[in-house]
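Reviewer has doubts. Consider these C-alpha cells.
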Amino acid sequence: MTTMVDVARRAGVSIATVSHVLNDTRPVLPGTRQAVLDAIDELGYTPNTLARSLVTSRTRSIGLAVSAISNPYFTEILQGVEAGALEHGYGLLIADPHDDPEHERKVVQLLHERRVDGMIIAPSAAPDALLSYLGQHDVPTVFLDRLVDPPGGSGLRHDQVCAENTGPMASLVAHLAERGHRRIGLVAGLPGLSTTAERITGYRHGLAQAGLPYDERLVAHGDSRAETAEEATHRLLSLGAPPGALVTANNAMTIGVLRALRDRGLSVPDDLALCCFDDFSWADLFAPRLTVIAQPSKEIGATAVRLLLERLASPHLESRTVRLPSAFVHRTSCGCSENAGHPESPEIPRKGPES
C-alpha cells in the first residue's frame, strides 16, 4: 500500500509538505504542490480520510438537504453542488427534508452527527427549529434558493444564494399584458417561502407596469406541487370571469396546470396563454413550446459550495446573500409566433439583501 512516506520520497519533499498539500493547512509553493500532486497520481496514493479527519477535525464532506430531489430544478442544483464539491475534494451526504419542518430538523441533525464540515440547505417555509439547531451547534451553513432571516440572538452566521425572482416574474406578466391579456392568473408556490413571496411581488409589479389592477381572486396557491397546482388551476378556471392567461411559479406546478387544461379540453395558447417560472429539459418539446424564466440552477449549486468553503476558511465573515440573474426564454406558449423577438426583462425595483 502506498503511503505518505512514498509520496514524499517520489516528490523529494518532507512528509509535512505532503500533509499540507492534502489538507490545505499551509501555503505551498506552486511548483512544490504540483510535484506532490504528480507523485500522488503516479503512485496511485489514496489518502486515509478517516485518519486525516481525526487530525484536522475535518471530514471534507458537505451535507446537502434539499426537498423534492426528483424535481428537475433541484436535480440541476444538485449537479452544480456535486461538481463544485468534487472540484475541491469534498464528498456529499444528501438528505430530503420533504419540506416538512420537523423532518427537516431531524435530517439536518443526522447530517451533523456524521461530522460534515458544513451544510447547504434549501429551507422549509417554517425553519425556526432548523435555525435554532444550526445556531446552537455553530454549523457553517449556506441556504440556497430560499432566503431566511435567522431570529435575533440565534448566533448563526450564514450565507445565501438564489436567483432573481421579482423582476423576471414581472417580465412574464408584462409580456402577457403586451399580448393584450387583461385577466392574468397566477398559480403561486407554497406560502412562507421567500421565492413565493418574491414572485407574487413580481406578479403585482408586472400588473402595475401594465396599468392593470391586482385582483386577489386571480391568485391561487399551488403549494409548489403538481397535484395542488392542478386543483388551483381548476379553481381559477371556474371563476365567473376566468383568466385568459396564466403564469405558474415553478416547474412542478406547470405540470399540474397543463393537466388541468388538458382535462378541460383547453388549448395553449389558443384558449389560454401560459408562461412559467423555471425552465426544464422538455419545456422545448411541448406543443406549443413553453415561454419560461430560466434560473441558473447549476450556478446556484456551485456558488453555494464556494460560499461554504469560504466560510469554512474564514468563520467570522459577515453573512452574505448572492443573487444570480435569471433569463427570459421566449417560445410560443405565450401566443407569440416562432420568429417573434425576445422581450427584454424590465427593470423592477426589488427589496431584500444583495451582495
Notes: Residues 297-313 form the longest helix (17 residues). The chain has twelve helices and twelve strands.
